[in-house]
Amino acid sequence: MAIGSPTERTLPPHLAGAEELTQRLEVDPAVGLGSAEAQARLAEHGPNELRPKDPVPLWRRMLAQFQDPLVYLLLVAIAVSVTAWVIEGAEGAPVDAIVIGAILTLNAVLGFVQEAKAENAVAALATMTAASSSVLRDGRPTELPSAELVPGDILLLSEGDAVGADARLLVATGLKVQEAALTGESSATVKSATALSGEVALADRVNMVHKGTAVVEGVGRAVVTTTGMRTEMGDIAALLDRTEQQPSPLQVEIARVSRTLGALVIGIAVVVMATLAFVQGADSAQEWVTILLLGVSLAVAAVPEGLPAILSVVLAIGVRAMARRNAVMKHLHSVETLGSASVICSDKTGTLTRNEMTLRTIVTASGRVELSGTGYAPVGQAVLVPDGDDGGDDDDGDDEALLVEARLVLIGGSIANNATVTEQDGQWVVHGDPTEAAFLVASSKLGEVPERIGHYERRAEAPFTSERKMMSVLAHHDDRAESRIYTKGAADVLLGRCVAQRHGDEIVPLDDVARARITQAVEELSAEGYRTLGVAYRVADEGEAASPDQDVEHHLVLAGLVGIIDPPREEARAAVAAARRAGVRTIMITGDHPATAQRIATDLGIITEGGRAAAGVELERLDDEALVDLVREVSVYARVAPHHKLRIVDALQRDGHVVAMTGDGVNDAPALKSADIGIAMGITGTEVTKEASRMILGDDNFATIVAAIHRGRIIFDNIGKFLRYMMSSNLGEVVTVFFGIVLAGVLGLRDTAAPDALVVPLLATQILWINMVTDSVPALAMGVDPEIDDVMARPPRRPDRPILDRPMWARIVFTGTLMGAVTLLTMDLFLPGGLIEGSESFDMARTAGFTTLVLAQLLNALSSRSAAQSSFHRMFRNPWLWAAIGLVVALQVLVVHVPVMQQAFTTVPLTGTQWLVCLAMASVVLWAQEVVKLAQRVWAGRGPAPLDDAVGG
Ligand code: ATP
């Protein structure tokens, strides 16, 4: 029997006693599993995943490369060609069939390699973004990928954790779990470790936690009972259809374009074949086969079937580069959305600021204490500035009172505290919340405080949440035989809970005048950019001592205020400016005081001096319509709770914005889900936000978001480049063949040596060679092109605007037609008759045409790198492109000059001069585009002012 699977006689985990269960699961709850045992169980139960994917064997994946209607068509054509060859006596080798087969295989190998590359990148992303769980293994708390959880693991749960497997609680303290995904119940369920009896519905199994749910409050310890598909979530997953990922807008667009082109080109191919058959006449089976192959190849050539593969590779390479720079995207296609983000809603603390908190000033009833020193090193001096320091006799008394109050502030702030500051290799390192660490550091700068704290024994805690904006600890003082509640929190919020104020050794009731004074002090500190907290306390009641509930913060005595600095990140200011230049607005959303938010936002250039900040309470009063108006105007939101974030996202989206939004706490998850790009903090973020987001910020840094948008735009631009390149190249092939046949008479495309023979401007093998080999190499290189146009000088791309817009189509048609024209003219140039008189053989002329087309495409690759800039601009920045060009030229030299290739592609050698003529003709494509671009640039220069001026503050 497998461990953990209940037999008929054993009770289900929620009904079993905790001890019985851990025995059954063969685990010591104080130590957890040993790693060897865990490995063995993992092998037995398999990974803890819903619907683990079956690996597809290599041969299947290779075969899948041939599964394309156009390839089927080609295969049919090859079969027909071989049959004809057999019927005609099987003389020599069926060259066309062999060559086409070889090209198809080469194409499949290329596709296979590209697919593998993209898949590897996706797999790497999956590991980077995999959910993790805290467990006890070998007696130590260990963080491991949730996929490795096994029955018997001891889960350590805390706020913000995504529950990794189904587990029975052993201990639960204030544990609340959001189980909506499983039970549909929207409010969080209070959990406990108590035993249950009788039939209990899933939603009422309070002693269980389930995979796919989230811890919103408290802590707990649980033993894993089932994993993977055997969990409750697994049951649901088995019932539901596999939710395939939706194709991205770009994928949809490319599929649509491919379909339309496919239909169009099959039409053209039929016309071409009919024209050839009826106008020129096919005399032999071989000629019929040639016509068929040509028609099919043309259809294959014109449809950009290689695009989706190239698209995936380009996205994969781009996403990997982004991950290296701390912006980890969960899905390749989110890059598209990132490029069109028009607003970034960012938290303040840690994202725009450094989250390095230094407590600088303490304000109490008797005055102010200034502390020197930076960072977390406990070195610094305290300077007392008592109010009314008039040099009189009583100044010592003022100092004394001030010192008593200031110490109390730091004692309270250090007791209501969960952080630690330790020295590691000469560096002071913070574990826990930096705001709390600031109190500890300050305490060591103001003598006596650490010793006094030592007398207290911590008994219980009412934890901090972004909604409450404060936290309290109940601590017992043995000598005094009393318990006190110490609270610290947002000063303005805390003041509402205070009834008195500490004045030296006395407690003075707070009247309106005192309140007004304190509020003014809060405003002043905040306006200087300080993070302003208050510290208060009260003696706990008898009965309270055992378990303070969350409403302990009442009838408090205010000890004083503190001002903590958290300097803006140096790079954030430049990033805000870069975003603005790119038409992306930065919005700051913070739980902090409006005045602090305003100061920092002004320093960072998010608003101008005097710019407005809206407070959370203000949002409460507005309906959705009014909120849309507000978000248009206001870029700083302060004292907000997580549910306000959701409303801000909705309002921005209603106003047509594509919203990127950051978040870290568990309650941010809904806003992150609803944003177009939810961004979770990699360092401080909870598992739940990481699950809800599309991007994880490795360094929690705002500048990284802007850099990712920049990169996203470059990637998108590169997609545009190879689309422009491939589509115009394909069109060039179609134009060559179509007009080569239709205008054969005008252009003198005739084989004078065999006047009755069928005239095809390009052979099927040549078309396929161009399309499947020489086209795709530069296209791939273009996918990793560096920035050519200044992508951050443009407004964000509108997501509903097709990438293949009108100007793009116009350019494609222009270039493709030109490419076909120069190819045909080159042939005419070498052939007798037509527009230009020549004297070469038809095979030579066709070789020249074929070569011209290949060269024209290479030059078109250079030109396609920018719609507006000259091809010579940053011409040598992409070594891959030059390598691709070099490779294709080398291949063409082989095709033209190596005998076996000449046989395969029906080519003849060209002289040096003939090569130069081909190059000169091909270069017309480049020059013509240069002229068009120059005209456009001149025209644009006369147009409206550049973007920098257009997008204001
Ligand atoms: P952001 O939303 O940009 O991260 P924030 O850190 O100020 O900003 P919250 O964490 O929601 O947002 O904090 C809100 C307020 O609660 C803070 O301005 C501060 O006054 C207070 N506060 C923050 N941390 C603590 C803490 N550990 N204990 C008590 N009060 C705190």
From TrEMBL:
InterPro entries: ATPase_P-typ_cation-transptr_C (IPR006068), ATPase_P-typ_cation-transptr_N (IPR004014), ATPase_P-typ_cyto_dom_N (IPR023299), ATPase_P-typ_P_site (IPR018303), ATPase_P-typ_TM_dom_sf (IPR023298), ATPase_P-typ_transduc_dom_A_sf (IPR008250), ATPase_P-type_domA (IPR059000), HAD-like_sf (IPR036412). The chain crosses the membrane at residues 70-87, 93-113, 261-279, 291-319, 731-749, 769-788, 808-827, 847-868, 880-900, 912-932. It is a multi-pass membrane protein. The keyword Translocase applies. Residues 12-86 form the Cation-transporting P-type ATPase N-terminal domain. It catalyses: ATP + H2O = ADP + phosphate + H(+). Keywords: ATP-binding, Magnesium, Membrane, Metal-binding, Nucleotide-binding, Translocase, Transmembrane, Transmembrane helix. It is found in: Cell membrane. Gene3D superfamilies: Calcium-transporting ATPase, cytoplasmic domain N (3.40.1110.10), Calcium-transporting ATPase, cytoplasmic transduction domain A (2.70.150.10), Calcium-transporting ATPase, transmembrane domain (1.20.1110.10), HAD superfamily/HAD-like (3.40.50.1000). Its main location: membrane. NCBIfam families: ATPase_P-type (TIGR01494). This is Cation-translocating P-type ATPase. It comes from Ornithinimicrobium kibberense.
